[in-house]
Specification:
The protein is an alpha/beta fold. It has two domains: 3-130 and 313-325, Glycogen Phosphorylase B (Rossmann fold, 3-Layer(aba) Sandwich), CATH 3.40.50.2000; 148-305, Rossmann fold (3-Layer(aba) Sandwich), CATH 3.40.50. The chain has helices spanning 3-8, 26-44, 56-67, 90-100, 109-117, 131-144, 175-190, 204-214, 228-237, 247-254, 269-274, 284-296, 298-305, 316-325, and strands at 48-52, 71-75, 103-106, 125-127, 161-166, 194-199, 220-223, 240-243, 259-261, 277-279. The protein is globular and about 60 Å long.
């Protein structure tokens, strides 16, 4: 799932830790990153280690850099729910990373405020926007010159409205995932004139309930995880997006697509406040009713679709480079 992104952006890594293994847990990921990065950091002697987001690899790489007394820059710093188990383990990953960091690239003013409240010096915080928007704008331009064959993805009636779904968060495994799936099945039953496309994450905790509950609906298309190029293309073709992802909460508004966030809390309140996204929770009725509202109320749909994207202007990378060059 990572290699295809590297290919699209023509990035060839000098080191590949190959961290992901079958049936591993968070203990395995954390210890493997620490142990495997040790030799690389000693050999390369970098001045900085840049980490992005809130994955376990982000936290572990920051800790490895700290052990070698290397400065850490955290891209996407300052996001918070202040609930240590939601999202799990991301909330603690990003908070520990921020404790270990030297420069903080906050995507929004809200993220900067969180960092200031935690005692981070303002001179070390840059409101940069998010690099995910940089990448999205690059890809949108790329797609203008790239003819996507829709049959590469799936053969359906593209004249119908399409709902794009992603769901993979660890804290939703189990009954919450089943609730989400049953809500999607109800939506498909209520609206036979729409299609639902769900690129299904490879994790067995996602695959099992999704296949069991949604695998027989003629309107729900379960497809493999898509590469970045095809997924952005799917976002551009969607009518609205249901997700538990963090990044998509930022990407979709940049494309004018309303987002319903299937989580109980979000570390990205800016989208909620701007009106580009709505926290629909993980309750059967709320998911179904929020989708019904956007499918049936054109005014409500347009209000979300036209809301301003608060997550950046596509120039985050330049601000990050400049801040590192000027760091004292």
């Amino acid at each position: 799932m990572l290699d295809q992104v590297l290919d699209i952006f023509s990035i060839t890594p000098d080191h590949d830790l190959n961290i992901i293994k079958a049936n591993q847990d968070l203990f395995d990921v954390t210890t493997r990153v620490l142990l495997d990065l040790r030799g690389i950091l000693i050999e390369e002697k970098p001045d900085w280690v840049l980490v992005q987001g809130d994955t376990t690899t982000t936290f572990a790489a920051s800790l490895a850099a700290f052990y070698e007394r290397i400065k850490v820059g955290h891209i996407e710093a300052g996001l918070r729910t202040y609930n240590k188990y939601a999202p799990f383990p991301e909330e603690i990953n990003r908070r520990i990373t921020d404790v270990l960091s030297d420069l903080y690239f906050a995507p929004t003013a809200t993220s900067k405020h969180n960092l200031l409240r935690e005692g981070i010096s303002e001179k070390n915080i840059v409101v940069s926007g998010n690099t995910v928007i940089d990448a999205l704008i690059w890809m949108a331009e790329h797609l203008k010159t790239r003819q996507i064959d829709i049959h590469e993805l799936i053969d359906l009636d593209w004249s119908k409205r399409m709902i794009l779904v992603t769901g993979h968060r660890r804290e939703s495994f189990g009954e919450d995932f089943r609730i989400i799936c049953h809500a999607l099945l109800k939506i498909a039953t209520l609206y036979p004139n729409i299609n639902i496309i769900y690129p299904v994450h490879l994790n067995p905790n996602v695959q099992a309930p999704v296949t069991e509950i949604l695998g027989h609906s003629p309107q729900i298309y379960l497809i493999p995880p898509q590469d970045y190029e095809h997924f952005v293309w799917l976002m551009t073709k969607s009518y609205l997006i249901l997700t538990d992802s963090g990044g998509i909460q930022e990407e979709a508004p940049a494309l004018g697509k309303p987002v319903l966030v299937m989580r109980r809390v979000t570390e990205r309140p800016e989208g909620i406040e701007a009106g580009s996204s709505r926290l629909t929770g993980i309750e059967f009725n709320s998911i179904v009713e929020d989708v019904k509202l956007l499918l049936e109320d054109e005014q409500e749909y347009q209000k979300m679709a036209q809301a301003k994207n608060p997550y950046g202007d596509g120039k985050a990378a330049g601000r990050i480079v400049e801040a590192i060059q000027n760091f004292d």
